[in-house]
Amino acid sequence: MSVIVFTVILLFGSYFAGLLGSLTGLGGGVVIIPLLTLLLHVDIHYAIGASLVSVIATSSGSAAAYVKEGITNIRLGMFLEIATTAGAFTGAILAIYVSAPFIAVLFGVILIFSAIVSLREKVEQITHQKTFLAQKLKLGGRYPVNDELVEYGVSNIAGGFFMMLFAGVISGLLGIGSGALKVIAMDGVMRIPFKVSTTTSNFMIGVTAAASAVVYLQRGYIHPGLAMPVVIGVLFGAITGSKILVHTQSSTWLRWTFAIVVTFLAVQMIYNGITGKI
Amino acid sequence: MASPGKFKDKDMQVIIGWILRAGVILSMGIVFIGGVLFVYRHGHSIPDYRVFKGVPYFLRSNDGIIQGILSGKGQAIIQAGIILLIATPVIRVAFSAVGFIIEKDYLYTVITLVVLLILIGSMIYGKAG
After folding, report:
1. N or C: which end of chain B has fewer CB within 10 A?
2. Residue B28 touches partner A, C-beta closer than 8 Å
3. What residue segments make up the domains of chain A, in order of their start?
4. What is the pLDDT of residue A116?
């Protein structure tokens, strides 16, 4: 396959990966890595590098829009970024000692888990609990609901922080945004309203990915010939996805279809990992 | 809860949004230009990404990348765009630190500097490793 053909295939493939990632809320990385490794037989280290770069592009691009709407909780994000960047750094170090098949299997497991999370009913919940730590750290905030500012509190900060550390390690090790884990930490553990959780998670993903990307960049994981079509394709796919989401209410059958596709990819990754084909 | 600095928080949101958008647009523009050059010059060669070999030698140092850009090498230009893209969230963190200093929120100045230190530590480790 010549560079032209390879680049064109990757541009289209990445566009659909970005679209799928955006529509499911899982992020482009979770689709691009199986595409590169299973279909195009790219070494998983190159795939992780290219995916990380695309994760930074999409999360920074969409965070720019969310931050202006005032839903993102910048202080909360900043505080939790201590955990995610430290975790991502650790993950990038661990990646040298971990074999490619193990990464593939772990990737599959996290992918299935994320697909299940994306199917969950999204219920807006608000806690008014004011813990000592949350007040000291000024983590609570207000966010707009139907043109009205609603106040919310934050609970179980230690638990959320620990979960973010784990999300960071996974992001650094697998080259994905691990948005699903971040949302669980905020919405499930810390009881933060869902909208604030997703936008703040998005805000944190770019910095988290940058912490491991600087290690991968210098280790030669980020190959320009590969990263170029991937980052362009994924970004435009994600833009299309967000436009579709604005115009349609998330339909149940659409989410199920995507969850099945993603689960299929996950099973393939696990199978190829176990049989040592990756 | 952050009512005293309400207006300044709003300013910070606008600036952060602007930095992120500018960083993404600029870096993607550079990646695109590099990509066109790369495909134009190497379109018919056969790439091999099946086995991990790292990146071409001239991309392994800053000097090499700068030399590459000057001689119009597409891959060097793409790599420069990618470095700018990776730097975008880091610049965002640095600006947040400045914002918190202006707001006189010293607790968050420290928190932000800790994040920045982790990022710098990661960069230094990457170079050494």
Report:
1. C
2. yes
3. 3-274
4. 86
